[in-house]
């Protein structure tokens, strides 16, 4: 095989893996997760159901969902040493880097680190998912000179996560909307972060290492970091006109507009974004203030007209998180926390059916032979 003939920049369209976890079915316009339509699931299931579906492979009964909730709560406690390490980081550290550091440090606390069996990997997945709300929220709090907060085990997993972030018990609507955002972020086939984690896992490296690599990948603003960038952009405007002018100015300077475009959906709206837009509408109605929705809709219209580009999930997740009272530096860490369910499923699948990733190159250097 002549490798230069098969070079595809960015591996666009390249099939990198076999998987039974998920598929973006562009013909049917569906996000399939273990045989189910993610958008349909988002109308009738919770994030805990998705954790079960991703890790156990089947849709959970009410009792199984409850068991997942309990399992996650049993792992809420983060080792003191990990918290001490977070405390030692410079105050400029982004919570994504706090998350990466904490997950990396957690490897040392795993007594059977070399055990890659399904059982051991699942145990780790539930442990990490259980610890992530405390790791995530306290990464932000410690670095902002605030006392760490403890989880409230009485609340469901997502409601507690939001409570730890805002310090206030969420209403049912707020908890449902936050839970839905976690569900929608939980798994999405083969984005850069998932590919990264599978590449790392393919050397027989452990789950902590594969997840640490995935946090780094997800942090970039071409991927998960876009949700924070969207909110900073929205914050720069005080009216629909101002927001449109910001976008026009960026387009004039050939800048990318965060929250638009997608490698797979390309010229169509990400179906998850449509769901989050509805959540934004609900929150705007509740607050009697439609400015954020109006700005976002105007941006959506302008980008369709000017570039033929449509929103991805990050575009509408950002204003939803803002209206839920979530500090902007937590948006991408929340995305990663949710995605950890999907990532763990992929790492497990890679360990269980492995071949080392080792591609070739198209050489463009000298040949001074
Ligand atoms: C949940 C998620 O992680 S979804 C992704 C979140 N990321 C973002 O929102 C960042 C903004 N979007 C982008 O940068 C891109 O659309 C990506 C990274 C998501 C996909 O990138 P790719 O598939 O590699 O497309 P690529 O960047 O090559 O863009 C193709 C063309 O569309 C343009 N384009 C793509 N996205 C945008 C955008 N958001 N704003 C302006 N132009 C864009 C590119 O400039 C390029 O134009 P050209 O052919 O004239 O040079
Ligand atoms: O699929 C992608 O490339 C990025 C994305 O939308 C996600 O990870 O949710």
TrEMBL record:
Reactions this protein catalyses: oxaloacetate + acetyl-CoA + H2O = citrate + CoA + H(+)
InterPro entries associated with the record: Citrate_synth-like_lrg_a-sub (IPR016142), Citrate_synth-like_sm_a-sub (IPR016143), Citrate_synthase (IPR002020), Citrate_synthase_AS (IPR019810), Citrate_synthase_bac-typ (IPR024176), Citrate_synthase_sf (IPR036969)
Claim: Transferase is one of the keywords in the record: yes
Keyword line: Transferase, Tricarboxylic acid cycle
Entry keyword annotation includes Lyase: no
Transmembrane segments: none
One GO process term, biological-process aspect: tricarboxylic acid cycle
Pfam families found in the cross-reference section: Citrate_synt
Family matches, as SUPFAM superfamilies: Citrate synthase
Molecular function per GO: citrate synthase activity
Cross-referenced Gene3D superfamilies: Citrate Synthase, domain 1, Cytochrome P450-Terp, domain 2
Active site (UniProt): 262, 314
Signal sequence region: none
GO cellular component terms attached to this protein's record: cytosol
Pathway(s) of this molecule: Carbohydrate metabolism; tricarboxylic acid cycle; isocitrate from oxaloacetate: step 1/2
Family indicated by similarity: Belongs to the citrate synthase family.
Full protein name: Citrate synthase
Source organism of the structure: Lentibacillus salicampi
